[in-house]
Task: inverse folding
């Protein structure tokens, strides 16, 4: 049986969050799937806005390039903004799935309406942008924030996790939603327990994305190279971008 190798990219540079994401991915991966959790060699410790996303996106492209060189079968972008998703698809031959996109798709398969619980109020707009971009705005009842920084999920106090739980209880009580999407890679290890306790499907994008990439590979599907997701037109990049001057990837 061929082993599938799926690279799970945490676009921020937090090693603790990369570990949380890697463990959650391994929990749901099939026996023949090898999960490779990675994060950029340099960049932003947490993604909490548009500027951070731009930096994170370059880290994603760096890791996709390295993964393509290493011959991985698929990539997951494990940040709820799906930073660099379409650019990453240009570089990749295998599937590339973002955790926001994956969770939203899965949520609409189990409920007509879902709500989202994310970290900071300022990233709520990013979730709304993606809902529109992916065509799910009519399926989403509300986007809630726990009003805490992303890395509070890794501070070991459990306070942020408690806030996530409270927001999920609030969403279930108030939003008339049938499912809840967790809006941060760092929440990946909370879904199963919350689903069980609250008796409502709680979906984390990391697990959803692992199963989607496995399904796509199982169908022999990779990223289309026809049209806008074809490899970028080769041209000599300069400065920190010379990593992309690689004919095996470009
Ligand atoms: C994430 N930030 O999933 C997003 C969460 C957010 O560093 N990993 C991050 O609030 O956008």
Result:
């Amino acid at each position: 049986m061929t082993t599938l190798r799926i690279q799970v990219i945490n676009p921020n540079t937090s090693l603790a969050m990369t570990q949380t994401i890697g463990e959650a991915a391994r929990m749901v991966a099939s026996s023949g799937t090898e999960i490779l959790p990675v994060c950029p060699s340099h960049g932003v410790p947490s993604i909490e806005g548009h500027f951070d996303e731009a930096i994170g996106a370059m880290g994603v492209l760096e890791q996709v390039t390295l993964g393509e060189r290493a011959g991985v079968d698929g990539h997951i972008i494990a940040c709820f903004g799906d930073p660099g998703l379409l650019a990453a698809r240009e570089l990749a031959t295998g599937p590339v799935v973002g955790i926001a996109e994956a969770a939203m798709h899965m949520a609409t398969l189990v409920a007509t309406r879902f709500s989202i619980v994310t970290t900071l109020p300022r990233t709520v707009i990013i979730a709304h942008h993606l809902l529109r971009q992916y065509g799910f705005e009519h399926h989403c009842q509300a986007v809630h924030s726990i009003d805490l920084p992303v890395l509070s999920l890794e501070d070991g106090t459990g306070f942020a996790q408690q806030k996530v739980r409270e927001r999920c209880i609030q969403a279930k009580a108030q939003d008339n939603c049938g499912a809840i999407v967790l809006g941060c890679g760092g929440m990946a290890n909370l879904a199963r327990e919350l689903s069980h306790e609250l008796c409502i499907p709680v979906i984390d994008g990391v697990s959803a994305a692992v199963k989607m990439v496995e399904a796509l590979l199982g169908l022999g599907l990779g990223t289309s190279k026809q049209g806008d997701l074809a490899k970028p037109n080769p041209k000599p990049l300069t400065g920190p971008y010379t990593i992309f001057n690689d004919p095996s990837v470009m």
